[in-house]
Design goal:
With 100 residues, the protein is an alpha+beta fold. It has three helices and seven strands; from the N terminus they run βββββββααα. The strands form three sheets. A three-stranded antiparallel beta sheet has the order 6-3-7. Strands 1-2 form a two-stranded antiparallel sheet. Strands 4-5 form a two-stranded antiparallel ribbon. Helix 1 packs antiparallel against helix 3.
Length: 100
């Protein structure tokens, strides 16, 4: 019997390749635009514990140390090509602490 392929992703904090199900997705929501294509509202960055939110994703291990490492090295800002406010980082840390 053929074995199913397990999708692997790289943690933005520690840089290790791990199975996708072991990691938590961090997502940048798409920008809201009007009918002319002008940006009305920028998409925010948040944790996606369900893995179903729309937008660009980056992955991090399910522990606070990896998340802090990724924040310190500004890896989410590089992955999403935008500035991430400190309030979003604080809310992500709180949500990760509750999820552990």
């Amino acid at each position: 019997m053929k074995q199913k392929k397990i999708p692997m992703r790289k943690c933005t904090g520690c840089g290790e390749m791990k199975p996708k199900r072991e990691l938590v997705r961090v997502v940048k929501a798409p920008d809201r635009k009007d009918e002319n294509g002008e940006v009305l509202e920028k998409g925010g960055v948040s944790l996606d514990l369900s893995g179903k939110k729309p937008g660009r994703g980056a992955y991090v291990c399910n522990n606070v140390q990896c998340l802090k490492k990724a924040i310190k090295a500004k890896r989410f800002e590089r992955a999403f090509s935008c500035a991430v406010p400190d309030e979003m980082y604080d809310s992500m840390l709180e949500e990760m602490k509750r999820g552990e």
